[in-house]
Amino acid sequence: MSSVEASAAVLSPGVHRITLDAAGIPISGLLSTPALALPRATIVALHGAGMSAAYFHGRAHPDVSLLSTATRLGYAVLALDRPGYGASADALPDGQSLTDQADTVRAALADFTTDNETGAGMFLLGHSFGGKLALTLATEGEFRGVDVSGCGHLYNEDTETKMWQRNWGDLQLYPPGTFARAGAAVDSTPILELVDAAAWPQTFAELADRIRIPVRFSFAEQEKWWRTDDVALADLAALLASAPRRGLTRVPQAGHNISLGWAARAYHTSALAFFETCLLDRAAA
Questions:
Q1: What CA–CA distances, in Å, run from 52 to 184, 212, 223?
Q2: Which residues pair with 78 in a beta bridge?
Q3: What topology is assigned to 3-284 in CATH?
Q4: Which of 59, 169, 194, 197 is most buried by a 10 A CB count?
Q5: How far is CA 76 from the centre of its chain?
Q6: CA 95, CA 248: separation in Å to the nearest integer?
Q7: pLDDT at 87 over 80
């Protein structure tokens, strides 16, 4: 069964640490719930490689946290430490493949729903490698929609860009104190993720047609990991032909780690607007 503990000295009011039982694997994360008795819906947030659930609750500025922004608008947010991170790191020192991560997260969510109301259902929001996991999860299950940032389908083959530029872009895009506080969000990357990351273009081509829920891709203006030219984005949209609603958007004044930057509030509210549209589509069906 899931367990929730308050950590007022570390987290903001209303944000709690949670540990879920994923068929014997402990999956930790952060949970934020609105004041409403029933949340409008629940967002399952999945962080990128080398990060943690704290990525979605940046503390450098009040506007940065997805958990705080979404909760004020009536949504619950469950930001998970993906398998191989947080509480599961000891049990999964090498991490898991994308397929196994999806199975583990589904088991964790089954445990979550035994004790928690989800409102109109669950949405997926994934960043970078967490976007790969969100898209894998989106091929099965009763999710209402999926929003992905920092993840495309074709890697940018530019070899001259330095690693920190790929991950962050212009450092002025982030609030003062971001990098001093980044330790809470940063973690080591399990080896199995590196294997799956290399195979992602082929993996996506195989799973894209199985995504039959609304999907949106958000690309930072200074995204360096992925091809975001018009030809690549047209190909991406074509591969998602089975999705009932498709969105491709660019986020101005943002680097790869959108949810830690000044553009976080704009991105998070646009993702929530997309989820609202998904709820309207469902109500009208």
A1: 8, 28, 20
A2: 31, 44
A3: Rossmann fold (3.40.50)
A4: 169
A5: 14
A6: 30
A7: yes
Query: What is the rounded average pLDDT of the residues 251-278?
Result: 97
* Interior/surface letters 186-214, b for 16+ CB within 10 angstroms, e for the rest: ebebbebbeebbeebeebbeebbeebebb
Sorted by sequence, the CB contacts under 8 Å of residue 202 that are 6+ apart come out as none
CB hemisphere CA count around 255 (13 angstroms): 17
Contact 215, 148 (CB under 8 A): yes
Contact 251, 263 (CB under 8 A): yes
Q: Which helix (H) or strand (E) holds 233?
A: helix 230-239
| Residues 60, 67 contacting (CB under 8 angstroms) | no
- For 94, list phi and psi in degrees, rounded to 5: -100, 5
Give the total residue count for the chain.
Answer: 285
Mean pLDDT score of the chain:
92
